[in-house]
Specification:
This protein is mainly α. The protein is built from 4 helices and no strands. The protein has a domain of 104 residues. Helix 1 runs parallel beside helix 2 and helix 2 packs across helix 4. The N and C termini lie far apart (125 Å).
Length: 172
């Protein structure tokens, strides 16, 4: 016991230097490994880790591809909606063109493109209004005839200018 209470040169007590003996639970001898076995064990472990990382990289790559495909799908859907809208608009314009042609033929109008409206009723009403304007112009005579009757020298207008003037007065 005298050894246990020895003090060092600095005056502090030193702890015991012996360590407890390891207890063998199964009385098995500790196993020793050769360098080849250690290398094999390490390489197997590294292989498993690399396998996990490659799986991770593969999943990461697939996630990126999925995001790209989703983006392309979204763009394709938007383009599809745009094309559907354009097709619907073209079909509507075709229907209106047919209606204008029929109404123009019914009222004796040679150019159906002058008729305005978004449906058959509006186009028909516009054609009737247009025919009334022409009838009023015919009953009053042309601008050149009126200037001849009044004796005032007015510049002649083309029938197109007369039509534009009459329409601007009618639509306002």
């Amino acid at each position: 016991m005298a050894e246990e209470n020895q003090t060092g040169a600095d005056g502090q007590q030193e702890p015991e230097q012996h360590s407890p003996a390891p207890k063998d639970v199964n009385n098995a001898k500790p196993r020793t490994f050769t360098q080849e076995e250690v290398d094999r064990i390490i390489n197997e472990r590294l292989g498993r880790e690399r396998g996990r990382k490659s799986d991770y990289e593969e999943l990461k790559e697939k996630a990126g591809q999925t995001a790209d495909l989703e983006s392309k799908l979204s763009k394709a859907l938007e383009e599809n909606e745009k094309l559907k809208s354009e097709a619907k608009q073209a079909e509507h314009e075709k229907e209106l063109s047919t209606i204008r042609a029929n109404v123009a033929a019914k009222h004796g109008i040679t150019d159906p493109s002058v008729l305005a409206g978004d449906d058959e009723k509006q186009i028909g009403e516009y054609a009737e209004k247009l025919m009334k304007v022409f009838a009023d112009m015919r009953s009053r005579g042309t601008v050149a005839d009126q200037s001849a009757r009044t004796g005032q020298a007015k510049a002649k207008h083309s029938s197109r200018e007369d039509f534009v003037n009459a329409m601007s007065n009618t639509l306002l």
